[in-house]
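Section 3.1: Structural characterization of target chains.
Under the original work plan, the team committed to producing a structural model for every single-chain target entering the pipeline before any wet-lab resources were allocated. The record below documents one such target. The sequence was received from the expression subgroup and is listed exactly as submitted; it comprises 353 residues.
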Amino acid sequence: MPVNLPPLQAADLKPVKGVSLGYAEAYIKKPNRKDLLVISLPANATVSGVFTQNRFCAAPVTLCREHLKSGNIRALVINTGCANAGTGEEGLRNARSVCAEVAKLVGCKAEQILPFSTGVILEQLPLPKIIAGLPAAIAAQKPDNWFHAAHAIMTTDTVPKGVSRQVNIGGETITITGMSKGAGMIHPNMATMLGFVATDANINQALLNDITKHAADRSFNRITIDGDTSTNDSFIVMATGQTGEQITDANSAGFIALKKALTEVSIQLAQAIVRDGEGATKFMTVQVEGGMHEDECAKIAFAIAHSPLVKTAFFASDPNLGRILAAIGYAGVDDLDVNIMELYLGDLLVAEK
């Protein structure tokens, strides 16, 4: 059971103007399972993304990076059941074939399609099944299909994950809705993790890139379950431009409000992944303050979070605090002054000086 994660309801996820989602049961791995999703965007949408740093990145990650450079993305296609990773040139050809087929069906160029795959590594994409399922997925597209879409991207997840938020910008109500998937191979940069967030805000490409990186660094790049960095991690932010005047100033109130709200949505989506982690029984937050810079604080935080001994102590509710101190000590901060350090569990000071 997920750790303190309320069940997602269809009414929780608000439609985003300009976004249409359709799913199909393509029988990629199992029958009677939503496993293929197509998300369509208007011609004026702006799209930004960050991806895994794993050198064995999957074929769809390679294509996404290429296609984002061309701009004017019109659709996303996501399959579960097969990661299309470690599949060489054939894997790239298959991913390109999927993009070409989606492009033909929605009326655009193949370079305007972003492909995503999640599932088993070292297996070739079942191309005929995916091609056969695409027309049904596109025919089923609706703006209010977020709940079904969140189910369609699941693999080992036990529950769907989604969040919506609305914020007032310049007198207009801006909607932000997102979904994520992931339960294992979860570690920064990023993980067996897919995150998709859409907003109807009107924002230029450079500022959307800024928001995407900011949100990722404070959400998906700050979680860990098992310490394994996956081959397929992708976090995509889509702005359809259907509401309000274009945001072009990074110092404007509108930009600041959108950045804050979209980051909060991303944090909720990332935390939902941890709460649904494979074998997870507790959700822990590690907070480090007073370091020389953010990277130093993160290094200490991840040393604690990755420690098997710290994890087993938390699992057993065993207050073996020395394990936390030991992890801090080997985090790699050479000039750490342990004589002024304080350790808290919640609000309780448990070690000082």
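The chain has a mean pLDDT of 94.
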